[in-house]
Protein 1
Amino acid sequence: MILSVGPLRVSWGESGRRRRSPPTLARRSAAYAAAESSLLTSGWDSEPKTPDEEIETTLRRLRARSRERVRNHCYARRFQIMLKTNTVGPQGIQIQVQSTFPDGRLDDALNSVVEAAWRDWSRPENCDVAERYSWRQMQELWITTIARDGECLARLYPDRGPYGLQLQLIDPEMLPVDYNVDALPGGGAIRMGIEIDSVGKPVAYHLRKAAATDRYYTISIAPYERIPARWILHGFVPDAIGQRRGIPWYAAALNEMRHLGGYTEAAVIAARVGAAKGGWLKPTETGEGFVGEDEDEEKRPIIEAEPGTLGELPQGFDVVQFTPEYPRGEFPEFVKAMLRGIASALGVSYTSLANDLENVNYSSARVGVLDERAVFEGLQNSIVEGLCRPVYERWLEIVLLGGLIRIGTERIPIERWQKLRNVSWQGRRWPWVDPLKDAQAATVDIEQGIRSRSEAIRERGRDPDEVWREIAKERDQLQELGLKFPILPGG
């Protein structure tokens, strides 16, 4: 709110002299109500900051609190499980190589060889420097670390393992947020541990040096190892233009999670107190000193109280009962309200996060599920763009140059690299709320020519070529065994 001095008013007194009235204060409102300054908005941000400025001063605190919630809060843990289940799934994000001949036909033999080699590389002993995680587990750790910490790092090690490439997932705390150099030769700089050129492109990452055998990370001042950006994958979901580091996804929900945890704990304690037999002994006029049945550590007399029993009062004492009435009926509604806000901040439905299917019908469940699945499909694309595709293309280049995969005895020429880059990545798909209705809808779409069978199969998380081969193999086996089954519509 802006105050300005209004015009002076002049009046004539009884003596004929002019008398000035005090100036009036005119209130002038801002063009936008949200831009007004007042006591009610005194704590509200009024000066914008750059994304890096906001992140540099808050990232480590947000990350510490986010990690604490994931360790100790059941709904934060639930969200981490939902991420693994819905973005990576039980089979991981799978590759489908789609290289073709000049006439456009799929080169099935070549595609199968490359896919088989990729599956073999995906084993822990082949893809992980420490031989600890499989490729599927790396995908899980990648997305859950990004959610919890805001970002995840992976280092590529060439010339290691049977396929010439292995990975190491790196805790983002190893990339210092407080390491900045304003000017480097050539016009570059270092911002929050990332060396950039004059246009902001990452050139190298400066990671804290820590041996794999160290018991704890050295977070204080430590020497840094400069690793070219070519060998580092830095994954995060950007929220602003120019953002160089990621923010934990729990940032907007941490306060609500903490308050909900404290409220729930207080309600549980109150319920336990209310369920116990409690009260005070009040002496009457005839009461004598009370010695009790036992004494506590501070020598105070106590009476043992057990559920379902009736005790005998000492002579000369009355009981003043303690009967707390909390929690009452407001507890469930308050928890639901808080969880709806938390679910909104995390981009999932309340029903899924809270495991609450009460009062859910087909229509409401479908709307919530479709929105949620769209979020998970977007995150699957983020995993592909940030991890799967760059790792595959680097792996493909190395194995072709090294002649590490062959068709029979013949090496696959490096000239096929460009065509072998043509792949699709198949993420987990989900059964529908009402499978029969959705299957009928898919059948109608196929009959009307607005959807292919392959698309319908991919929506279920399967590889169409694999399904066709499985169907053909099944029919051959049935024919060989002389077995006949009813032919289903469309069969």
Note: Residues 2-41 form one domain.
Protein 2
Amino acid sequence: MDKRGSAPVLDVVDPQQETDALAMAEHADKLEPGAMLFPAAFFTPTTIEILQFELGRVKFTFPISAAMFKSCQKSLVPFCPPRLTVQCLQPIYWARVPNETLRTTSLKLSDIRGWSVLCDDPVRIMAVYVPEKDESFDILEIIEKPIFLDFHRQTLNLYCKLA
């Protein structure tokens, strides 16, 4: 256990290789000097609310255990033995932001008209306009959602037919 009382941390001393026994087979990785390793395993839940896992059948390993996840229908608290921590990975939606903070000027016009905010040096991005949704999306977001890819495919087919 480290100073905070959380999961154990393996500190890499040898800058060339770190070797460990993984599933009874030698597994070697090249790591940077001073890299901190946190032991982790990734699972796909067997059902929506429960994950069952077994951490080995050899001496000095953890026993079979299970964890309960938060559910939409019930407010279950994740449960796991105190020596283990379970974290749920959730998909997130991201959007690009500029590398530097934009300079803006704000001015209160009046109590009736409200505020005016102007960007001194706007950042240009390449966006795709979807008329059916009346929205614009960053060009890099197209690869993340199948709906955008379908729209892009249909647009390219339309351009090919016009040419």
Note: The chain has one helix and ten strands.
